[in-house]
Amino acid sequence: MRSYAAARTMEGLLIPMGALTAGVIVFGLFCAVLGSNPFGVFYSIYRAAFSDWYSWQNTLTRAAPLLLCALCTALPARAGLIIIGNEGAMVIGAVGAVSAGLLAPDASHVPSLLLMAGAGMICGGLWICIAAALHYYRGVNSVISSLLLNYIAIALLNHLIEGPMRDPSSLNNPGTRPIADVQHLGLIPGSRIHDGLLFGVLACLFAWFLLSRTTFGFAAKVAGGNVRAAQLGGLGIGRILLILSFLGGACAGLAGMVEVAAVQGRANASVNAGYGYVGILVAFLARQNPAGVVIISLLLGGMMASGGMLQRAHNLPDAAVLVLQGILFLFILWSETLYGRWAERSLRAG
Amino acid sequence: MRPPSIEVRGIRKRFGGVRALDGVDLRVEPGEFHALVGENGAGKSTLAKCMLGINAIDEGNMLVDGTLWSAGDPRLARQHGIGMVFQHFTLIPSMTIAENLSLPRPGLPAIIRWKEERERLRAFFANAPFQVDLDARISELSAGQKQKVEILKELYLGTKFLMLDEPTSVLTPDEAEEVLIRLRAMVNRGDLSVLLITHKFREVMKYADRVTVLRKGRTAGARSVSATCPEELAGMMMGETRTIEVVERDAKVGGPVVFAVAGLRTRGDKGVDVLHDLSLEVRAGEILGVAGISGNGQRELVEVIAGQRPYHQGRISVNGERYVPERECMQRLGIYVLPEVPLRNAAVPGMTVAENIALRQFDRPPFTHNGLLSYAAIRRAGAELINRFSVSPPSPDLPIETLSGGNVQRAILARELGGQEIRVLVAANPCFGLDFGAAAFIHNRLVDARNRGAAVLLISEDLDELLDLADRIVVMSAGRIVHESIRSQADQVEIGRHMAGHAAG
Q1: What is the predicted ipTM?
Q2: Which of B89, B266, B388, B480 has its CA 20 to 30 A from that of B241?
């Protein structure tokens, strides 16, 4: 039995590493075809993302929203619900947070941040609950509905910042009125990294604890593993799905709040910067495991940070990083089919 | 073309460290009806798959018509008239029978001329053992009809040596009878050899010419059916005579009604009503057997009780209190369910055996304190029940999907019967596909529960099992209870007539 457990652990390490390596090789070929030296490209990514404190700060700043957005997929996934509405929940969270901030302009620093965070989380949470409720009560495919909810959320944001909530002084880049200075999120002492990173790490710790140490997490695992067994056990599946979806959406909504309160200072089209979509990738790379999300967020945060460098140093298009992400995603999805093979063999052998 | 003679000598097959086959000899003469028996895991299915070429043979020889045969490709086997009907259906549900028969035909042109294919099929059906509606979709067929189509497909593709892996396990007694009689007739005409893998000695004694017994991957012996008896075969199957424990039934019957279903209506998968005002009552310390041909609403009844299917009319109660399939209510009323195909209906395949065993109790002490889970307690309790119910391999940490069917059944049984106070136990085909050692174990646990005062609802397609265990038998047909008899007066013929739906009013 020990060899079986060992084989499972090895699989958990080797398969993602193998998939990453294979993806990196294919991306290298892609760079070579475009006329760039692949090794030079990878070195540039390393330099832009992980070589010194300056680049680490860039990476960590980008990792913060990824941590939160990835949980929007990883939490419902535990109960078997595939949600890819991260971008929409983040956008709606940003709208909610900025509204709360603008409605209470005189609140002091901490209360207004709590207010904005709360509003962003509730908005994002309820947004994802729409997809979960459609799935549970009406049988609508949650992948499709949550994907389409992204477009609705983005359209809603555009409508608000160009219409009812538009700041008349924002000309080229329409947005809402800015929030007050005291409503801005602080920086981690000694760095340029905003506190959103702490939110992200704490949220991942909380999610890990919830899923792997609590009774609720066990019930969610049963529901995700076999709905019929969960029904036989009388577990309230709708309740489990809605709670996890709310928590997941709330995390993405918090990412939206962070984007407003730490980066943009208002809600504008830049809130919809693609962190939500990369968050899906993070969640799948981490196999929906909140602890894994922390590591993968660093990796992909670094990749996002290196986009500009690739453009400058190698004349690669800005979108090259997206190509790398896409290739990795395909390899990860494919590698999912490999789990269990070695372990099963060791079982037969043992 | 005459059926070939088939012989295997000293076949060995390993999967990793497990010797699935460890020296098997078997010979089937042309035009012989040969039975292959053995306990679960004795290697019967593996042997058939090796002969077909799905599994490679590690050691040993196979001879077809006396010449050495290097198995390894099922298509090659098909060309030589070797074919197999598997335990699980291989037909394509969304296609018609005609399409299912024609598509695998060797030499089918890239552009199919259906007129010619129809012509071929008509010619084939002039001599076929069964007649079917060629335009019926597979998904509309009953299990029995599907099994017939599986056999027809093999015959249409020119199979002369037909292996059947427990073909009657999904059939009613009548259907099984019909299928075997027709196959026997083809064998008698010299058109076919049959290798029948089965658990049922009755089928061996009635239809086979010869029988080979496997035990732990080895040939324990071969006999002519006319020169053996079920007792000898059972002895060969199990090796040294094992004593099978029998739990005696308490004599007392007739406690108060504990479990009652009244006027239940529910819809099936296709949206039409499959239960029509179904009512039944089970008393404390009683086993109520529900007989019936599969597809008459038994599955849906179990699903309703298990909370896997909603119902739109009727009432289910335990001791007079309304039962709703929610956790709190299930625990308070003490209702436990052992559904059929437990890996699909009652277990989480990827979770460990211990976690699966904990499904009923994980949210109570000692497993949970203040919302926090103790995996150590789950593992301990799991290990104890695994021991008590002899689940093999005896490890709480393996994913339950890695266990054999009989051991999954034991693990789920351990969960449903382990420890807690049981008022109602619902079991559906609990011994489906198990050898008699495992079946006897499960039967004894059911009688145990009954003797301790539980109301047991046993739903089974195996009438012998019901006659053996039940205090009272009701027959379910077309979603209704159509007949009831008590143990002492149960008449197999009368029950069979009601099962078939032939009984007048």
Answers
A1: 0.86
A2: B388
